[in-house]
Amino acid sequence: MAKAAELAYQNEDAVKAEAGRWGFDRVRHHLTRFTPPFPLADTQAYTAASDNMIIIAFRGTEPAQIRDWLSDVNTPPRPGPAGTGLVHFGFAEALRSVWPQVKDAVSELRDNDQSVWFTGHSLGGALAMLAGAWLSFEDPKLRADGVYTFGQPRTCDRLLASAYNTAFAGRCHRFVNNNDIVPRLPPEPVYHHVDALRFIDAAGRVRESTTLLGGLTERAKGLTADAFAPASAGIRDHFMAAYRTAIEKNLT
């Protein structure tokens, strides 16, 4: 899933070639471009299918643009899937712009009862989380088998987070790399995270525990002032390559 999330940053030819090497012989690309003053430049994703599984991976955004897609944090949240709770307006609109394409691709490619997986990094993680919710809550026949996100920002209110945790118990894995600043945004108490946290500590070890979240948040406070500076640990730990490298180390 980490490799699939990282691949979402590549162009269409590169995605198709690499997915093919993994055994995914059918790929569909999804793209929507926004116009000013909407803070998101575009939404990009791909759906890749093999005989056994389907992966929908959403592209994230460059660190320099993080301020842009969080600039609508003061916009009132919009209703969540099936009217459950509330979601960040910008993230919901970004997903909505490609959602018909994604659903059509899954319906078309799911011809062998394949499992369905969502993944994404940064903004892409928020979209992956919401896509899993929308699919499972509004179209149970196509429910997601699992969701893996990396450096995902807070995306929804407490009501939707609670419903999501129940629906996706054991099937959602939210990776946070050490001092990555993006998972602290947008701020509480309006927005909340879903379970289950997979925290990558300073030594690169993956900790399967939510008890570290309090300490993680405290450490992040010292980074807030210069969180968007190029050399900041808050940004350095956010890069998808850092997530993939740490996960690969844990596998060995």
Automatic annotation (TrEMBL):
Matches recorded under CDD domains: Lipase_3
InterPro entries: AB_hydrolase_fold, Fungal_lipase-type, Sec_MonoDiacylglyc_Lipase
Pfam families per record: Lipase_3
Single GO biological process annotation from the record: lipid metabolic process
UniProt-listed SUPFAM superfamilies: alpha/beta-Hydrolases
Transmembrane segments: none
Residue span(s) of domain Fungal lipase-type: 55-188
Highest rank taxon of the organism: Bacteria
Protein name: Lipase (Class 3)
Species annotation: Actinocrispum wychmicini
